[in-house]
Design goal:
This protein is of the alpha+beta class. Among the domains are: 22-260, glycosyl hydrolase (family 31) (Immunoglobulin-like, Sandwich), CATH 2.60.40.1760; 610-702, Golgi alpha-mannosidase II (Immunoglobulin-like), CATH 2.60.40; 703-729, no CATH class. The strands form nine sheets. An eight-stranded antiparallel sheet has the order 7-8-9-10-18-15-14-12. Helix 7 (397-413) crosses helix 8 and helix 10 (536-546) runs parallel beside helix 11. The longest helix is centred in the middle third of the chain and has 22 residues, at 440-461.
């Protein structure tokens, strides 16, 4: 007769015979004849069954059409096959799952560790005739998902499908709005909820794992299903999947940024005050600086994007894309750069990887074969909006060397610029011919990362990393390790959720969850079309928001004379000055956040749930953020508001202090606070080591050196009373 332990032993043996289990690294794989389950650190990520296979392969005909950086994609799927049949084998510290159909090998998935990352699944290429693959990952109904690069409309990606394709973000970004409708009819540039400058095949799950894909071709992250996530990839090379788990979201994002790369420390000067975006020549630049300083604006830099000259198109004022100093536009600029630097003001400029065919640099690059080619072997000339340019081939080592040393090093760094906007990277045509031999479909997404690398190498090779800053709007996997800071791009100058002030909040949060932690925006927005222009209220709401970010920079927009600027009125300048003082006051706090991002990969803008995991309400908040651990910021993104609702994370033990009146509120509740123009809803954590700085914010006045008007009248009253009673002789 068997003992109890005997029965248990027999039962275990029977289970092992029917259900094999292997473990390599952090992966655990369990399978029988029809099912396959893969876990990472006990977190299930794959659940393959005959009814819902892990992999599907297929054949389709897809096309790309583009104009002005706006892409329309079409795909006719001719066949989609679920790969239900598989075999598992183990070899040298890894195991391989072979998927086949009727004896035909479709692909293999090898689960292993690599030198720089554990938990990697590597796929072989698809068989001839197959150019689509769909990968299903296990999901739970109450799961939330974040990331996908920079997403402007949705922070929680669950319930939506997100194409992974770098492009212009679009104007309006909501087909149901009049602005988007008109933009579509104008040049096809209306956009939608998913259109973005920075798309990335990466997501973080609330089940405490991240998944990152290595593909660079077109793909889609589909989170519309309750029981699985599905990732679609076009092309024959599915690439690799990377998994990692973490005990907390901060740890998890830190691991992700540790793998993808982290941003360097920002220059000290960028935190000291605002960078003023102005144009019009040397005298105009100096005049704007003087005018701003007279009104108390704290100025750390000036941004002259028209340093190389200007042109005018129907869209508005544009730049002459020939990246060398135009001495007629900016006489004595070299000397003024030096003079301003002695005052702690750095001059910054503008550049992108394209050259106007009317310029000297185009002719030099063209004669050396440095441009992307078309199918006939000639330079591929692209319309960028009523002017035509060549695209420097960033896969050509000679072209890269020339651009780094002749254009960026000689024309910009040696001239003395403290930084620049490194714009574009989204327009790359899919039918281009490249030095590397890669196709445009494969290169398109990773082009902005190559562009970031060119800028970073130019700065590093000049010994200026940590002194020079460059900011980019386009990005992809790899941009993390090269770009110093990003900006949100070309928001429309209105109050819309999808393309207005509100949209830059989820943009920063989603990018932070994608491994990139430093983000800012054009103060006031950028795009003005169809008679819609920036108002003073919109500009100042942007300005009060910008004070609680790592970089504060204004932009005149595409139609400067039509839009409200920081210099439009004295009132605006005094109010703007106040916000620059708050930004300056937070310099050391921001420095600590930038250092934390650099060393640990934790973003400066953080979702509420990053530090309040047990508060279920935090997972749906997308228009507020934690600036570090100690500040809660809730920007006002609607017109004409005098009060604003704010969700305070945590529980009763968590006390938040309203920064403008020092009143206490307990966590875990929705509160309504006064939020007149100039007083963005901000709370600090009670007991914060930064409390002395935070308390000074409420006392910052509109014109800086002078006390508030009420204080002046109080002093005058005291003097009058004292004189009346003869207290003073």
């Amino acid at each position: 007769m068997l003992t109890t332990w005997g029965y248990i032993s027999v039962l275990l043996l029977m289970l092992l015979v029917q259900f094999d289990s292997l473990c390599q690294g952090e992966f655990t794989i369990q399978y029988d004849d029809t099912t396959l389950t893969v876990s990472v650190d006990d977190t299930r990520v794959i659940e393959h069954t005959a009814e819902s296979p892990f992999l599907y392969v297929g054949t389709g005909e897809y096309k790309f059409k583009s104009r002005l950086g706006n892409f329309n994609t079409s795909d006719y799927v001719e066949e989609r096959i679920g790969l239900t049949d598989f075999n598992v084998s183990e070899s040298e510290g890894s195991f391989t799952v072979t998927f086949h159909r009727y004896g035909e090998l479709m692909t293999t998935a090898t689960l292993s560790n690599e030198d720089d990352h554990d938990n990697v699944i590597s796929f072989t290429s698809l068989p001839t005739g197959r150019n689509h693959i769909w990968i299903r990952l296990y999901a739970e109904e109450d799961e939330h998902v974040y990331g996908g690069g920079e997403q402007f409309s949705y922070f929680d990606l669950r319930g939506k499908n997100f194409p992974i394709w770098v492009r212009e973000q679009g104007v309006g970004r909501n087909p149901s709005t009049e602005v988007t409708f008109m933009a579509y009819n104008n040049d096809g540039g209306g956009g939608d909820y998913h259109t973005t400058y920075w798309a990335q095949p990466t997501f973080v799950s609330t089940r405490k794992y991240y998944c990152h894909f290595s593909f660079t071709s077109y793909g889609e992250l589909d989170f519309t299903h309750d029981k699985f996530h599905e990732v679609q990839i076009w092309g024959t090379m599915p690439g690799k999947m990377y998994f990692e788990t973490g005990a907390s979201y901060a740890e998890l994002v830190g691991k992700l940024s540790g793998y993808l790369g982290r941003q360097p420390l920002l220059p000290e000067w960028i935190r000291e005050g605002a960078v003023l975006g102005v144009q019009g020549g040397t005298d105009a630049m100096l005049g704007y600086i003087e005018q701003a300083q007279e009104k108390g604006v704290v100025v750390s830099g000036v941004w002259i994007q028209d340093w190389a000259g200007r042109i005018t198109t129907s869209f508005g004022r544009r730049l002459f894309w020939n990246w060398e100093w135009d001495p007629e536009q900016y006489p004595n600029l070299d000397e003024e750069i030096k003079n301003l630097k002695t005052q702690g003001i750095y001059v910054t400029a503008y550049i992108n990887p394209n050259l106007n065919r009317e310029g000297d640099l185009f002719k030099e690059a063209d004669s050396n074969g440095y441009f992307v080619k078309n199918s006939t072997g000639d330079t591929y000339v692209v319309d960028y909006g009523e002017f035509f340019c060549g695209i420097v081939d960033l896969t050509n080592p000679d072209a890269v060397y020339w651009y780094k040393n002749t254009v960026i090093r000689k024309n910009m760094i040696d001239l003395g610029f403290g930084g620049w906007m490194a714009d574009f990277g989204e327009y790359l045509p899919t039918d281009g011919v490249f030095y590397s031999g890669e196709t445009g479909e494969v290169l398109h997404n990773k082009w902005p990362a190559l562009w970031a690398q060119v800028n970073e190498e130019a700065v590093k090779e000049a010994g200026k990393l940590g002194e020079i800053i460059f900011w980019m709007r386009a990005g992809f996997t790899g941009s993390q390790r090269y770009s110093t800071i990003t900006w949100a791009g070309d928001q429309f100058v209105d109050w819309s959720l999808d393309d207005g002030l509100a949209s830059v909040i989820p943009a920063a949060l989603s990018l932070g969850m994608s491994g990139y932690g430093l983000h800012h925006f054009d103060t006031g927005g950028y795009t003005s079309l169809f008679g819609i222009t920036r108002t003073e209220e919109l500009f100042l709401r942007y300005a009060e928001f910008a004070a609680f970010t790592p970089m504060m920079r204004t932009h005149e927009g595409n139609r400067p004379s039509d839009n409200w600027q920081f210099y439009t009125s004295d009132r605006t300048m005094y109010e703007f000055a106040r916000h620059t003082k708050i930004f300056h006051l937070l310099s050391n706090y921001t420095k600590a956040l930038v250092k934390e991002n650099h060393e640990q990969g934790i973003p400066a803008h953080r979702p509420l749930f990053m530090h309040y995991e047990s508060d279920s309400n935090c997972y749906s908040v997308k228009y507020q953020y934690l600036y570090g651990t100690d500040l809660l910021v809730a920007p006002v993104y609607s017109e004409g508001k005098e009060s604003w609702e704010v969700y305070l994370p945590g529980k009763d033990a968590d006390i938040w202090v309203f920064i403008w009146d020092d009143s206490d509120y307990t966590g875990g509740q929705l509160v309504e606070v006064d939020a007149p123009l100039g007083k963005i809803p901000v709370f600090y954590k009670k007991g914060s080591p930064w409390v002395d700085i935070f308390r000074q914010i409420a006392a910052v006045t509109t014109d800086g050196s002078r006390p508030m008007i009420s204080q002046v009248w109080f002093i005058l009253l005291v003097v009058a009373v004292a004189s009346l009673f003869g207290i003073w002789n």
